[in-house]
Amino acid sequence: MASAPLVAGASVALPSNMASAPDVWDLWKSLQEEKEVTIAFVESGQCAGRPGVGTEVARHLQVSVDLALQLSRGEDAHGSLTSCSTEACTSAFGCGSRDGGIVWQRVHIPAAGLPLREAVVTQSSGGSLQTVLRLSAVRLVGPNISLITRVLNGSVPGPTISILPGDRLSIVLENQLGAPLGRDATNNYHHPNSSNLHVHGLHVNPNAPGDDVMGTIVRPGTSSRFEYKLIPDHSPGTYWAHPHHHGSQVMQAGAGAASALLVRDPPGFLSHQLEALQDHVLVLQNLPRAILQKAAKASGDKLFEVDEWELPQDLWLVNGAPMPVLTMKPLEWHRLRFIMAGVSSWLHMDFGDCQVALLAKDGIYINDFPRFIATITLPPGGRADVVLRCSGEGDQVVQSLAAHGNKDVFVGPLLTLRTLGPVVDAGVLLPWKPLSRPTYLQDLRGELTAPDCRCMTPLGLGGNTKWISGHLYEGPKQYLHQWPQDAVAERVISGVDKHTYHQHTWPFQLQDDPAGADPYFKAGDWHDSYQNIVDSQVTVRFSTVDYSGPEIVHCHILSHSDMGMIGVELVRGHGPDACACDLLGEAKPVALVGLPGGKPGHALMFAAASTFLAMLGIGAATMLQVYQTVSNAADYAELPDGQTSSRMPTEPVNAGLVSMI
Question: Which positions fall inside the Plastocyanin-like domain (predicted)?
Fold first, then answer.
């Protein structure tokens, strides 16, 4: 076997004395030819260098063997190991050049027009769920495309996580990536192999070991456990999970690493009509080649690599496939849960001649179902649950249309709705809304819920001004605002026509009908991710209940976030003294008493204030940029040997105010 190259499908055993095993070098040749092989790892042993190759090659080979032994536990390890050169033989778990890499799994993108695939579901039972998400590298291969990227649990998208209100969710994030860590930088792409986890939209504890995305860093080759305890009346709905390390969001969440996360409806929560519907989860992902290649180059990434890309535009996938087909019977109502896990463009989705009713946005049911709509607006990070049906046999194409100004909207088809078989007339949709809401979703409109703290949050306007409230990201303990706990907070956000505003932990309620008369947006609706290209400003309120600690706000156009359009706020204390609208600038709270947000007569006043704050902040932010790159490097320093994760220290918080898990 040693005298001839391996053929596709051959097996090779790697003994402990690898330096004397010619099979190893036949294996490398086969890998270089991108043949699929099966490897039986007998034992790890010591990997000595072959003369002329060097100890680094031997060391990285040993890393690969050790990892495979860990995964296979003595069984045969199956997979596609591709593109490895003996001069710089590397793995997704070791360092090296862009010329080579080992990818342990080949993920196939099916051809367009095949039936919609449903993701594997991991479901809670008995009030809890313990699961593992593995961040690793794969070769994504399909018609006219081949690239190496990062995914969760070896699939695009990752597994669907399903839990109930009140459940305890435990997720171990295993970072199976490796060195090099990439460049040290703040507010630029960096450390593409460092990671952590965000449960997007969940109302859970923002402190470690919960939804802590600034203090917890999971380094390559390490793991960390994230623990979430949902409150008993947490809103059932559609959420998702994705990596959220500042500087590597584009290279991970924006390149395929994402999973749907569902909070199931308890028995009897929905109407009988809604409970009986067929339910489909659709994860929408786009891989923008130019953005990913730019981020890879800027971050010093040695993993992401495009071998073939013969597509007319960016790659769009629905549950891991281009233009899948969802088949239903004529006039049969179906529930579709759309998760916009794309990195940059937003969607203006049209459903052809099908009848569509909005049910929920960002995991929160609306008050006026069925709200019939023609299109839905999905920004990056946003979700929409709709109930729809199509009449007659034939195909209806769900596509994203050009919109007002055509600002960063994807234009093209996404999936096909195919009606076949006998007519199943399920009748009209009956009105429904939740019988009760949790405290964090109580209606905040009107004078009876006058806000306890009011602040303005201008988003960067024009050019490359990717800042929030005049500041680029300055570190995990540099807070933009402080909000009192157990209070009604009001925020006036400007710049939402150009940026997708996302707020962790505490969703927010629209206080007025936005301009444009789009029925998708109404006063009283709840969001955690918001963009409206026809109305640059929105007034929202939220309840700072159940938890205290950091609140993360950022643009969910992930390239903007990685470049510094992210900030940390603080929920702590009680009463007027706990309200501070610009801690970094030491500004006093904005006096909005008697100025109802969103009224036309006050738009110029708010805009002028936003511009003034922005002008104050942008100069300081620019001057601080070089300093931040150096001073914040400590936030991203490598871990000492043996540590599994790094949790940044947080601002001291009154223990009596923190609801710990």
Answer: 151-266, 308-390, 482-571
Is residue 644 scored above 80 in pLDDT?
no
Integer angstrom CA distances of residue 215 from 162, 177, 252: 26, 20, 18
Give yes or no for a contact between 453 and 542, defined as CB atoms under 8 angstroms apart.
no
Answer whether residue 311 shows pLDDT above 90. no
Q: How far apart are CA 359 and CA 338, in angstroms?
A: 11
Question: Which among 66, 59, 133 has a CA at the least distance from the CA of 96?
Answer: 59
- Tokens 């929905």 sit on residue: 270
| pLDDT surpasses 70 at 634 | no
Chain centroid, CA 531 distance in Å: 16
Q: Dihedrals φ, ψ of 612, to 5°?
A: -60, -45
Q: Cα(626)–Cα(132) distance, rounded to whole angstroms? A: 38
The CA distances from residue 142 to 139, 146, 308, in Å, are 10, 6, 10
Any idea what DSSP says for residue 70? H
Q: Classify domain 443-625 at the CATH superfamily level.
A: Cupredoxins -  blue copper proteins (2.60.40.420)
Contact call for residues 171 and 211 (beta carbons, < 8 A): no
Q: Do the beta carbons of residue 93 and residue 178 sit within 8 Å?
A: yes
Q: How far apart are the first and last CA of the chain?
A: 57
Find out whether 605 and 592 touch, Cβ atoms under 8 Å.
no
The Cα 377–Cα 345 span in angstroms is: 11
Nearest partner of 240 among 340, 165, 335, judged by Cα: 340
Question: How many CB atoms sit inside 10 A of residue 639's CB?
Answer: 16
* Strand positions, DSSP E, 288-411: 305-309, 315-318, 325-328, 334-340, 347-350, 355-361, 364-365, 371-372, 375-378, 383-389, 394-400
Residue 161: CB partners within 8 Å, gap ≥ 6? 121, 122, 129, 131, 169, 171, 241, 259, 260, 261, 262
pLDDT digits over 145-194, tens only?
999 999 999 999 999 999 999 999 999 999 999 876 778 888 899 999 99
3-state secondary structure 525-587: CEECEECCCCCCEEEEEEECCCCCEEEEEEECCHHHHHCCCEEEEEECCCCHHHCECECCCCE
Amino acid at 124: S
What is the pTM for the complete model shown? 0.77
DSSP-based three-state secondary structure for 435: coil
State which H helix or E strand residue 139 sits in: strand 128-142
| Token pair recorded at residue 121 | 């579901």
Determine the Cα–Cα distance for residues 63 and 58; give it in Å rounded to an integer.
Answer: 9
Q: Is the per-residue pLDDT at 411 higher than 80?
A: yes
Length of the chain (residues): 661
Question: 138 and 106 in contact (C-beta within 8 Å)?
Answer: yes
β-bridge pairing 375-378 and 371-372: unpaired
Identify the DSSP state of 505.
Answer: S
What is the rounded distance in angstroms from the CA atom of residue 431 to the CA atom of residue 238? 20
| DSSP tag of 381 | T
For residue 149, the surrounding DSSP H or E stretch is strand 145-152
Separation between Cα atoms, residue 564 and residue 466, nearest integer Å: 6
For residue 476, cis peptide bond before it (omega within 30 degrees of 0): no
Summarize pLDDT for 459-476 with one digit per residue, the tens.
Answer: 986 555 679 998 999 999
Which tokens sit at 348?
Answer: 């203006």
